[in-house]
Amino acid sequence: MRVHGKAPLIGADPIIDIGDGLRLPRRVEVEGRDVQGYDVTMGAEFNRDSGRYECRSLTVSAQEGTEVTGEALRSVPVQTVLRLGIESAVKGSMALNMGPMPEDIAEGGPTTRALKWVAYLYRVALIFGESPVQTVALGLDLPKSTAARWVTRARDRGLLTVQDRRGRRKADD
Question: What's this model's pTM, rounded to 2 decimal places?
Answer without folding.
Answer: 0.69
